[in-house]
Batch of 4 targets.
Target 1
Amino acid sequence: MNVKKTVAYIVMALIAVIFLFPLLWSLVSSLKPEAKIMSYPPKWIDRFTLINYETVLDKYPYLGWMGNSIIITVLSTIVVLVLAAPAAYAFGRLQFRGKKVIFSAIVSMLLVPIQAYIVPLFLLVSELGIYNTFAALILVAGANVTSVFILTSFFRGIPKELEEAARIDGCSDYRIFGQIMLPLIKPALSTVTILTFIANWNNFLWPMVAIRDNALKPLTVGIAQFLGGANSTAQFQYGTSLAAACMAIIPSVIVFLLLQRYFVEGITNSGIKG
Amino acid sequence: MAKSQWKVAAVFLLPYLLVFLVFRFGPTIAGLFIGVLDWNIVGEASFAGLDNFRKLFVDPYFTVSLKNTLLFLLFTLPPLVVFSLLIAVLLNQRLRLRNAVRTVSIIPYVLIPAVVGIIWNWLYENNFGIINYYLKAIGLGPVEWLTSEKWALISIAIVTVWSYLGYNMILYLAGLQDIPGDLYEAARIDGATGVQAFLHITLPLLKPITSMIVTLTLINTIQIFDQIFVMTNGGPGTATLTLVQYLYGVAFQNYDLGYGSVLGLATVLILIVFVRIQSRLFRLDD
């Protein structure tokens, strides 16, 4: 038994290392001046400096990108919730003709990657005069399918009796929705909030296409300028790009840790009942 | 069935439907129609009939991108299902610090693709990268991770597994926690070993979750784009040119919008075929 436990702990430690190692090594490297980063053999402990971080903050509108990301993500998430929750309620609880057809048309879009409709979408956004604005990102985010899908299955799962009792008491549909149904699907709402938040925070291709001004870019697109490897540019430096990457990890991880409980509950709930 | 509630439904549905139709459904349908056009974004569009569709069958780049996409699926799907299950089983045991390890394992999932790209580009660095350094220390390598045709796709597959493993693990963990403990108790009394219990209780009961994980993984890998775009942009050569990567090049670098749309359609069809196969294989009865 003890041998088993020991093996289990060793494997667990290995798992933790696999996930943490890339992050830790990047952090350590980002704290070295460029010349030291490329020194060989690699050293874990060295004389550390914040020079790379200063370069990123001085030469790029980094905090602006982060602010943009926060505004876009928060507004997108709100819009998704406000649009998707009532729609999902209609699909999950109300009877009307064409429900099945409309619902399948919506859900089938889960299989269509944005690349398949990004050209028409781009033309549309230009036509509407919202190219290079946050509105282009938020409205497109609002047409979210996953959230309708998840919320609908939750609304469906609520027992009929609750609704019938409310109806006998004379509740209107709007009150049933707002005061009975919404509180009941709180776990699902938190799931959708988190999944939408992460999806929008990490969204890359559409903002890259829809935003032209460097100052309006969200962090995902802005930070892509720091990429090395095959996309490397002449003045590419590992130090600054790693510093830019490490700073971007912080808000992702903070948000995740704050919402972690809901996140785990959420994705598991959506998975099993979805 | 109760009487139709279409008036109420309309109030609830319309705001979403409007946004959905304009910004999702409409463009998708328009994308289909663009497929029959010969349209370069600067020129006039002209009707091309089925030319763009025919092109698919003779286009060597399409064949290569399809092959790469299927290879990528082969590299990522098995580990993403098997390892996530094994890790979930481990982290479901009563172990100290298991919650910390659960948290740590899901962090890669919440990171921005470009951030993941920067981090792994550095780890994979041919001459100064730490992975090659450690490989050399045990007498292996150096491997030209992202810069050789042989390894580039595998390198991205490793990064993808690293990113999604924790997410799948959480799904499995939830499934495991839903299995009643008495089942294992009964199996133990009947003399079943741990492995037998795993094969005859755990695996069958996790079938719905496995099915879902496979579907999600299919969607994420067949449509893989961001990670490749930021790390290798399809190269070296065509080594990491996947379907969506190719589509992006055709539509946004060659500005061949018609053919780009056809490629999008092809991607969707391939995805549907795989999702169908998946649901056949798992044949869920509920």
Target 2
Amino acid sequence: MPVTTRSCPRSSSRSGPETITEISYPRILRCGDSAIGIEFSDTVSEAANLKVLSLDASLADAPIDGILETIPTYRSLTVFYDPKIVRGAALGEQLLQRAARDAAAPDTGRPLEFPVFYGGEHQADLDEIAQLKNIAAADVIALHSSAEYRVYMIGFAPGFAYLGGLPEILHTPRLAVPRQRIEAGGIGIGGRQSSINSVPGPSGWRFIGRTPFKLFDPARTEAFLLRAGDRITFRSIDMEEARDLDAQVAAGTARLRELVR
Amino acid sequence: MTAVLSIHRSGPLMSVQDDGRYGFRARGVSTSGAMDRDAHAIANALVGNDPGAAAIEFALMGGTFTTDRDVLVAVTGGRCAVDIAAKAVPTWESYLLKAGETLTIGPLRGAVWGYLAISGGITIPEVLGSRSTHLRTALGGLDGRVLSSGDILPLGETGELKPRMLGTPYLRGNAPIAVIPGPQDDYFEESAWKTFLRQPYRTTTSRDRMAMVLDGPALSAFKGHDIVSDATVVGSIQVPGSGKPIVLTADSQTTGGYPKIATVASFELARLAQLPAGRDFMFRKISADVAEELAIHAKDRLSAVIFGLTEK
């Protein structure tokens, strides 16, 4: 079903009074002279995200000449192309046709389990969230580790995973003042989303624990652990297991558990 | 034994860059690479390298270098004083730098990003298919960081040392910067578009390899200044709540949550990046279809310049 929403004139080339046009999805958005977007929604929705990933998978299986690479996000797929090989106008038509044909979105995500040492250096944020929600820290852990999350998007930094599926009670606004440095592996909550930090850096999210696994390691054969569409669960581990896993990750012997469904 | 380049003095934002890291944007990895792709490619071609080879990029200020083997060197990007063994040589030409001689590059005049290519190229290990440095995530380059005095970089095998110069001139005009509306052009009303296209904007000192923050009349997005994050491209013009446009450049993030009023045409990125701080300029709107034609033309023109290099 196409989603519709209200919109005003798209640019100065369409002058005149406030003509209200309906946007129907999917729609094509030009992003310069060598990228084009196909947008399935302007909000966060699992249905739109599945369509994005489905089209991305379709393009990987049966490539269109001239496409160089893609970026799947929450609600749109941006496609980079070589204008010497394919023009954006023609590519846009092909993308719309492909999206219409492949309406059924296969669930291509792998079910993966991340061990998390909750608390630790992030105990303060964990306690604060518990306080804000008027529940025990143990309940925050139980809630966070009982949900299944989907990787909606990889972005912001190499391998950084935006996760949908955070239980509503844990939705918490970001910090007014970001922290200067959060280590890789930090498990964050920002608004309605959860995340796994992939490289050290500043962040305004609240962090409740860490996983020993590294989402991004350019020295590893497979540099990235996750891709958009993967399904994530978290398993609470104690400090001893976290240290064991740290050692295994450092030695390159740790394996992320793919759950059997 | 591998030949090396030694850095004895360096400007503040000097790094190893090639023609970029492609194929990993879906995994959140920026493309990086030279801020001025054409100047970088021409510098490499002048010393007989592949145009995409790894070279040294510097911002505003050059530095002092030596090599332990005879090489060709070329400096491009903008005009600046270049000395080899205390003898002045022009930019945009290649010269023989003998083992042990000192190469000194002064401050750029009227430009921001300069390039030093050395025959054989810089052969540090590739990370994800590229030697470019992404400073914010410390990826690639020399330990992912800016270069400084004392650093030593390995050089590849050099070919015949025949200095070259441009046969076809490489010129850039002062026309307004061409932009293609979108992807969030519909977040901005007619009045905002008029402001954007008819008022001058000014480059500021708030700039690095990730982005350029512009000064000028504020742009208001009537649909709001937050969007559900989608992909950005190099050249995306984001408009945050302040209304001051931010142009994303080589090291920019792959996704972002601000509406993007327009995208700088690929063939205009270098010209904009090279505008010194405090310079007024205008934007002009072109269609994506026209921009594709001009982008292809610009690539052909660069190929012609490289093909037209002549031995001195």
Target 3
Amino acid sequence: MQVSPVAAADSDLGHIDSELWRQVRSETIQLLGVPAGMQPSPYIVKKWRDREVGRVKAVEFGALHNGSAIAFRLAWQDPEQDVSRNDNEGFPDGAAVMFPLKDDAPLVLMGSKEQPVNAWHWRADRPELARNNVAAGLGSSRVTRGSEIRTQARYRDDHWELIFLRELKLPDVSTAVDFSPGQSAKVALAVWEGSNGERGGLKAFSPQWIELTLGELKAKG
Amino acid sequence: MTGNNTGRVTAGELQLPQRQLAMVFDLNKCLGCHTCSIACKTQWTGEEGMENMWWTVVNTEPGKGTPKDWQQMSGGFDADGKPRPSRIPSREEFGEAWKYNHDEVFKGGKGKGVHLKPETKPKWGANWDEDEGAGDYPNSYYFYLPRICNHCTHPACLEACPRGAITKRKKDGIVLLNEKRCKGYRFCMEACPYKRIYYNHVQDVSQKCIFCFPRLAKGVAPACSRQCPGRLRFVGYLDDPDGPIHKLVNKWKVALPLHSEYGTQPNVYYVPPLSPPKLNSSGKLATDKPRIPLDYLRGLFGDRVEEVLQTLEREIAKKRRGEESELMDTLIVYSWPKDIFPDFANDPVTLSGGDHG
């Protein structure tokens, strides 16, 4: 998938109503529920054996960059909006984009010790900033500081729309994926449907890395 | 040993701590005063998001308990050691922390006309059905059941957590929840059959009793035990032959786990409650039947409960006759605090910021 370069301010790139996003070609990415058998605790395996994991089936996905920042747009259908964690048994909707920090990081296992992954995790109960996670296997994700990932989300007409915005490069490449115009990258997506009790490994995900190519900005003049 | 500490097997290996700390609650001494609950609340659960937390709570039995009807929620393990699916209790079931009209009464100048009351109409609370019990007059009955995290030998919470955020300490078997690893998924709350884990919705983490481990490190007993006016909460190591825990659990075998059928091998044990004899229809004592039905106690503490009550009665009778009874001497706690928590008898005053040396 092309990540088209645009001559636009970061604020435009990260704005949900920006004209830029009407022009970008998005792709429909099919999602799969993480099978109950893959859940990392026997309790979760038993409880979810006969339940549907991953209620969201597809995401509209697009991406843009402006030479200094990159933005991803996800949109998906969700008839039930969940934005709160106030009730013990309530879980907020969520979404994430995940990148390998080393080339062959295993997607389904969320990385390994040698080949970790970087996931930007948004949740509807804290909608304006995504958390930067590094994971080296299932159940190992940890939140790191120093990566500001701005998000803007909107729920309308049974749909979520969400934009992630981050600088292309950050100082700590061990915890934050590095993007360069003209280079390729890989991404995977995940969506959590709160009303279905989805949290942690109970989610829908894109089972293969999506190849991204960052276009180069044309030199002016 | 009682057979209650068989451990758990992970990746083919038996997991058992080197030693296991345990508590014994003598239900014949519990006054239902809630000093334990307040001591814990004051010590640990004062932060934002912890308002409705009672890591130690005193329920009335028979009763719905905290959270409401927790004994019907499943969780823990079945007879084959497989997890039993359960659910997360709601905040309403635990009981909300009611907000009161303090400002109106104390600061609003209406102190003489308005009385203190919750701002919303309460529907349930941690001790909503206190002292209700069961049975018909003159044979109505109830008793108090203090409850904390059982620091189980086979903790369902630990095995349910997909993040390894819950650990059982090797040196003393205390089960701790690492809030830095926890992401607030609440699988632990589902899996715990005793429903002793709370969700802090402000901090987005689960929280529970920590057996006052920072106090233990200074030789000071957990706050609930130290402050208990009834002096019924024994604390010590299960394997210490000179300590009260070993004597009550393993030697005299009068302290029983609550709902051992839940399969988690809890490390809180209860000396079951004796009760006066029932009255018959003509108002006379029917001496062969205790007021609290044995079947009810069996449902909580298992089949050995009758034998335990007989042992207690036998030893009480011995003591009354002026004979020696190690069991009674242990339960009486002649020398507090060293007889009730011998390894943790230091005064809490020694804790405050090192000022006391």
Target 4
Amino acid sequence: MNYYCPFDNEIDAALQSGISGTYLEGEVADILRKNGKNIVSFQRKETNFGVGIGDVDIETDNAIIEVTQQKQNKLGQLRKLQIDSQLNPSGKPIILYGPYYKSSGVSSTRAAGFLVAQNFQELLDILANL
Amino acid sequence: MPEPVALLSSEKITKEDFTAFLKALGAKSDPDKIYDGIISKEEATVWLALNPEDLLNYPETTEEITIVRQKLGSMPQTRVSLDIAKRSWQSERLAAEIACKFAERWSCVVDNLNGIDWRIFSVQEFYDLQTLKKV
């Protein structure tokens, strides 16, 4: 399949980074671009007067995807992504991609109103239904 | 967004004491009121929260309880989330410095909360690991 993604270089660099968390971000972005999803930002950092506000791992036309290799404790960051006008100016839904996230954490994250995917197919299904 | 690690302390730390600790480190308040404080230094940023809701029952599995008790000496009475800016060795180093300051006042261990390679470090081990990292 031919595809074009404006972040091809950054995604390829993530895949070759040798850092597991960064690699996972690259892996997710790679799947998305190969499935024709339009990536509008990748590893976007936001600051305000030099102070970090946060970063957006992957953003598509219709969602922000937070990629993690952690097993729990992402709720605060998801809330930040949801409400911060600089990180998420158009109020896109937030998807946590956490293949290693504990089942209790998945349940509580969903109960808090966030979407959670633990494998690529789940992520693609969620994106297709937004 | 950042990746979190947790400081697990055997001591019960009050909100007031934690707020004073943050103030002494020069933490700024979070405009979104999600975190208790944000510490920035040059290009580094760490977000801190005392007993965040998704750590309240941590550790919870038999394995987690066994290993945390072994490393800490008891079940944690306080959990502090340190959310470290991703792809920033400066932020990882800042988190290690914060952990050291925390440990000067309260006994604790550092839990990396990692789903692939879960480990619990002494503060010294965590500091040594972070300060070995370079650009």
